[in-house]
Amino acid sequence: MPNKGPVADRVAVLLPTTSRCCRSSATAIRLLSVVLPFVVMGLLSTLLISSNALAQESWGRFKGEIVVKFLSDGRNVRLEKPFAYVDPNNLDWDVPAGTETDGASVPRFFWIAFPPFTGQYRAAAIVHDYYCQSRTRTWRSTHLAFYTAMRAAGVDWSTAKAMYGAVYFFGPRWGIGVLPRAPGVDKYRTEEQQQAFFNDLKAWIERENPGLDDINRRLDEGGSEIPK
Known about the structure:
By secondary structure, the protein is mostly helical. It folds into two domains: 1-57, no CATH class; 103-220, no CATH class. 53% of the residues lie in helices and 8% in strands. The chain contains six helices and six strands; from the N terminus they run H-E-E-E-E-E-E-H-H-H-H-H. The protein has a three-stranded antiparallel beta sheet with strand order 1-4-5, covered by helices on one side. Strands 2-3-6 form a three-stranded antiparallel beta sheet, covered by helices on one side. The chain is globular, with a radius of gyration of 31 Å.
């Protein structure tokens, strides 16, 4: 039998090792094919959560915890701890402890579908109510803060815009030479008429997604141009 020599011996030694390496590589590839989709899904979920948190943060943020106590009259609540909303311009909207509110700055026809002290918009309603009472900021900036605070609290865009439009139109106004309500608001005297107006407003917003300036313009014209 011919002598295979040292080279052949080395090849014979390497072949089993190579075979084991191939089997190990195949196992690793199979394992990777199983694990990789879960890793990718985890990364995408993390990115989505981070993106949503960043988008929500762009509307401002809240400081403190809302702790309220319902008063004996069954209608008003008292804020037990100080609370604040910081708007997108980094302006603080502080609400001191001891503030009493009944949610009256939000039109009453909202109260069945959107009770003022529940839901995602509760924080925005408390801030809005306090500044409608104190009137230490302009009525326009106060209503705008109501909108951005709702978005910061996670209220969807169409509901937030429709609720903003309702308080802009039916809510209080103050300042030198300013009418207490929007022009044309007297056309909607009953809660049923106001609710019908709100439904038309929300439907228009959902169809066209107008900006706040466009909403303001149409409402300042009396709301008569809100498309059905």
